[in-house]
Task: structure prediction
Amino acid sequence: MSNSSVWAIPLGGLGEFGMNMMALRCGDEIIVIDSGLMFPEAELLGVDIVIPDITYLKQRKQQVKAILLTHAHEDHIGAVPYVLGDLDVPVYGTKFTLALVKKKLEEHGLLENADLREIAPGQTISIGPFKIEFLHVTHSTIQCVALAVRTPMGTIIHTGDFKIDHTPVDGKSFDLDAFAKYGREGVLALFSDSTNVERPGYTPSERAVVPRFEELFRAAPRKSWSRAFRARCTVSSK
Result:
């Protein structure tokens, strides 16, 4: 392949919920965006999880340079332990995303040898011909990023999952200015993914669940508060 060509190779997550994974290839170097699993439908009896087919990557493992994670949901990080069994590459993600990845790798006995590299919104890294800036976006979990990938052919924007939440629970707003900047510069391709985007209307802020949680805490006996807290954490991670 010529260094002046860029290929986008979806390996999962298109037309389905789960298994989000896309490879970007420029010349002989490949980066992978997300590594998610999918929970099976009822007809897949005896199957616990479904992961992307990474045959393309395994056949070119020397060319694969990194896995970049947009956020911590299972459909974007759940397959990391299975993929790292075949690909010995660094994994980039925010502090919260990598914290959940670490737990998964520990369960699979892979943590000790894993190369996990923490990034932050606004940070830029270079991997071969790719120059990647991480842009903060809001979603139903925290520390989510979109990727602005500069290539010899132009800039590719990969949004990851997102919703524009004007009152995010962590107080960190969607970085609309960064998207506007790239829009003014010109974008070669936009890969955008947001659940239920086809439906009309707006998704409420994550803060909308706070009053109900407060009601549950007030109504619950003090000895059950720890259980209510764990339930809140579980809901917030989905």
